[in-house]
Predict the structure.
Amino acid sequence: MAAFVMLRYPPPMIPEIAALQALLEQAAYVADRSVATALFLADALERPLLVEGPPGVGKTEIAKVLARTRNADLIRLQCYEGLDASTALYEWNYPKQLLRIKLDERASSAQSPLEQREAEIFSEPFLLKRPLLQAITHTGTPPVLLIDEVDRSDEEFEAFLLELLSDFQVTIPEIGTIRATARPTVVLTSNRTRELSDALRRRCLYLWIDYPTLEKELSIVRIKAPGAGDLLTRQVVAFMQSLRTLSLSRLPGVSETLDWAAALVALGSDSLDEATVRETIGCFLKDRSDAEQLRRVLDSGGFEAMAAILT
Ligand SMILES: Nc1ncnc2c1ncn2[C@@H]1O[C@H](COP(=O)(O)OP(=O)(O)OP(=O)(O)O)[C@@H](O)[C@H]1O
Ligand SMILES: [Mg+2]
């Protein structure tokens, strides 16, 4: 006879994850269960966390808030096309080395053997530590290393990152191998402007953050824009949620919702009206054709439906 196991869905959250979720909320970050679980597991398994999602949904903010809640340093590497290992890892401080050579020429230490002088200027005090090396050599509370918008970097840089993320060590030819004493928490973010390699994905745990649900967006606005009254908050969020159902070329993210709420508070609004929406379109739609599309919807009497409170 087949044995049935009754599964409770969703299974109860383990206390550590619930505690992390509460901690993030105290630090003004609304984390749903999937976010809190991913962060917990990334730490438990000591794996980097790759966060993908559309613009403005709170990917970068995760790393910032995580560092804040732990009182840890946030080390940020902003990726861009052409970013190379020397800018991300380390460079020799040439001006300082040159100065030292000049001073040595005048001083009696110039008599010391050439090899010794060379070893001196290729030692740690002459090293400019860039974010990745800073994260590896960091002492005290392990930092949070944010590798932001990794999809903007080149494939060669991604390959270089792979090595670093698996071993957390780096070899500097003149100095030797430097190994991280404590692994930093690593958060990588991507907007999917290009596909990341399978190899990088395999090394990371993965978290997709989508546009927030109505409930989540309400919580975010309540935390981040407390100056907005309850009615205005609900209308703004309802409007943004309907806006995302239109086929716009750039859907607005949470950052636009927060900007708009702040703008409406600055204008002294306590509820949403069509004229104000028309005047403030630039706060939440950053594309001319999208703005025109919304104006057409408003022209055909769509305002009431878009601002209707659904909860
Ligand atoms: N869950 C959330 N809780 C609190 N604030 C949030 C949340 N999600 C987004 N925000 C706010 O929205 C804004 C945008 O977030 P963030 O910069 O992290 O977006 P992003 O996903 O990194 O966007 P981009 O892809 O454009 O870099 C920030 O001001 C952030 O505080
Ligand atoms: Mg970001």
Q: What stands out?
A: The two ends are 46 Å apart (CA to CA). The domain at 15-81+136-208 is CATH 3.40.50.300 (Rossmann fold).
